């Protein structure tokens, strides 16, 4: 009895918490639970229990399926500064009246809840009208967060115009309609006169009546002028001037607004169009026994620039730990002079805010950033949130880590990979909130302040989504130029989620897509919602961790194939140094490089025979010269009668720039086939002439007719042809 | 100067309104506008501007793509009482830990904001796991509104179990893991001891410790028992009993809830499975000069029941107006004895709450409702919100109508159709809110009180969506049996919207889908999201307004074809009387009946030669006997090498009931073809035996092999075959 009394007491003590009581009794299985407790109010709870009063004043129109949007407005859709965004929505109303709609949009500067004014852009009904789809176009001109909202209303004067026009054409009596039109004008004039028709001040400081008011007064006068004929009255009421004036006095009848302010994240151009080159600064040496330095990197800049790259990315440049340091080929038994993995961050020389002493100091780093800039190269750093056991944080902030019963910390794993030389922080440890979160933000801010505006983030999917959502927004609220690049090779929904929470671009599955069917399916999916709005793919052809199986046996032709696929497939592509030399020696049976650079210093002869430097330079030049190739969107797969050739077209929205790309997927043998020209894009008949230009060679010719033939060889396994109608200029623009 | 001073004054007077000022100046065109004014706060405004404090406590897991849902929870998804609903969501977390999830669901009785307790159902990860899709199953057992929410958390003990299991199997040291497991048990025990392990009262009123608490105490004792071997400790910690007890003490680490409580509308079975028969009571007479009455309808009930119908639907039964009454064939010059269109509602005899005197009175109506019920028939009425000019409301409530400058009211139109004999109410007139809305609700409630639980609603798309959302919820809050059937033949998004705001079922485009491609595309679309969740199609083969072109020249075989398509294509189908007699005489070149019954009394000989009463009865019987045919969902199109034969399979979720349907679309000639049997559904090889049963004739046989052949003739243009594996019973259930 004592015991049960104890339990009864503790039960009633807990009664108010609800959740824990009910949950614990049911565990994770099926059953009843008392309540969901004190969670935040759910978004739509009771939203469909409307009182009569509410519903009488509820929006009469419906605005559905607003795009671009991510998870119905929960996250920002991605946009590029200066690039027009097509905003669409399905807009509905009961009845048959004419509707009107517009997009209202504005920048939302950080820290300002209410931005100044709204821009507006009219929306129009997309044909065929039966889909009730409306579109409008907006062009953000500054970086950072924007928002838009859609407004729609019943267009009373437009409805009346339509009816009058039809009846007048049909010759039926319209006296009543004319009187109704007159009353609409009268009401509009009343709205203007009541303050909506403010006078305008001209250059001399004089005030003038707004033209709409003058116009509508004239309309009324003309209608009331007795000798006016019906035809004259019709002309007056249907004139474009009257319509414009009536729009100035719009009544916005049954004005309805989209449920949500849809956010847009406006990035700079480089978030969508960039060519990345990755190198280990320590390997920029001619002797594996001499550690390369920032100063050594200077000598590489002209060559990297000349190959057409614009982002130069370094793996971590911070001090490397000693404890459990990895030896060559990822062994656990390093030789004394093995440099260790740069991902084992932190030693007595410092942590994420320090530079590995053998690379140089902050002065040398700044000089390199400047020099890169002078070569039109932007430096991207690696943000890898992990610590060598020697990282200062372990001693300074033991509460930021999860210690095991024996006083150790679990080493990091990304199954099946094991990282014995690093440990992870615990974002939700008691001491870590907010100190760890702030410390990590401060690390990023430090490098931003040093002029680094792009961060490649290592394994972001093993750190909490809310952390990234906060960190990225926080950094970008001060500098919206900063871009984050997610290195997450994991399940598709998680990779998309990282794009949603703020990563500007992402690694992809491209490296593992080899067949025509795989590539077609993957490129298509990246072009469609929901990925289209939240996920920018950066096609890396290799990484220090990924030595693709295809390249291990393809020889030089395979490197050309993958370079062409990456450069032509997305506005964003990248390579890790050695690719241009067709390096492919693997650990046998593995997708990893033999003698991986992560664990040793690897000098290279960057002009070694067989290199593809020239081809890469030409591919990058072609990209810079053709807007159609500067995005991953806008791809159309076309017919070719060969399963080993991928053939597609890239076009800018108005087809001003159209590039056809045929890539053999066979590095070992020639492939040939008949392929179709998209003559219909140019409004041309199937037997028409089309001008073609080989962008690798500069050769120009005329094609006649829809079906053509090509042959691709291992020596030049792809064709890149800019096409134009005969009445366009050679650049494809009329 | 005086004038501009005036304008300046009025301008500053208006400065605080913002909207009107900014809007009016820009009109509906592009430009800047000052602000969006005082609209309700947008749902997500600022939602992605999170402070560090907020984000440190934000949900760590992500729950995305919750289904079933309509517009992300804005509207209720449709369900049927007693039918299991599959709830799915994509659930994500950073890292590699094991997750757990469940659906919490409950009825939401009207007027009760917080219902009592939540039911819970566990969710499991759907294979392949790479899609991160979880599923759970719930089965609402009562009518009306439900809601569900998804909860997910990190399964700490499960994560630990997985790791221990792998390491133990690999033979690596696990002492540390065992100690970690011990601590998890200790913490769980602590949670139970702190009130989550309330004692349970048994039948005799005695209190007992919960089994989980006893179990976990035993686990600790066994672990701490010194001679215990590692193997014994592993067995203890990994035992199913320990797991069950740990779930009872679940810590719900990083518990995350879906953004929204997703509503479900639970309807009775008849909302998804019903066969409708439509007749004009006034035509139930043997003499066009004698007006049929409710009493006359009694004689038809046995025949309608025997044909397998269960809903008997009447066009409006209210008094018919005299002003602008329509004559035969929709003329504007009626003869003195023309009865007029029943859609011209209202006369000196009353309005929507009255009965047309020539049909009978309320007593006769009640008797008919009772008699129908005794014949297993449910009566559905027409709810047509429009008024003859003689409707009492025009005089009593002139403020409910929009009057034109000449004192008239615009007559109704549904372009291109004109209804000169009726006028529409104005839902947003000043006097109409709320009086008109309430009056209309009261009309429906009156007929609900008379025992009518199904309303076919005439042209709902010309009345405001918020009105329907309120009216349907209001009526169903008192009687969730009541169903509304939307007669909207308009654009697809509007038809879907009506389903969203509460209509239980809808007319469709079925009548205009004739070719194999059209039917396949349409049936498929109805089976998919977003229509699947919000739109139940009722396939009417004809209506008093629609005399389908196909039937005008098809003869009897065409009627059999359309009956088979409708009955086999959806759980809901209907016909308007005359169809069973293959009536098809059109107004030449129009989709309308000659001598349309809407404008005259049309006696019929329901046993006239050439009728298809028997075939309709058999089709309806087949539907009642096969659950696979009682929904519009669950359709699979299969291969047949003839473009004039539509061939599909219908199956219940576990394939317990599988029906194959082959329908010739050619009423004029025999069609034949080879078709495939879906042997793979039964796990059978391509050369296996499958039992077939012709549900029209009862004939049974065995098919051998995947490809079979059939021939369909105009006399019997379809085949309906129930199939089963040889080890199942003939009813298709093992």
UniProtKB/TrEMBL annotation, chains A, B:
Domain called Glycosyl hydrolase family 13 catalytic: residue spans: 278-608
- The transmembrane segments are none
Q: What's the domain of life for this entry?
A: Bacteria
The answer to keyword S-adenosyl-L-methionine applying to this record is: no
The alphabetized UniProt keywords are:
Carbohydrate metabolism, Glycosyltransferase, Transferase
- Residues of the active site: 458 (nucleophile), 487 (proton donor)
Assembly: Homodimer.
Which PANTHER family does the record associate with it? ALPHA-1,4-GLUCAN:MALTOSE-1-PHOSPHATE MALTOSYLTRANSFERASE, GLYCOSYL HYDROLASE FAMILY 13 CATALYTIC DOMAIN-CONTAINING PROTEIN
Its protein name is Alpha-1,4-glucan:maltose-1-phosphate maltosyltransferase
Question: Which species is this record about?
Answer: Kushneria sinocarnis
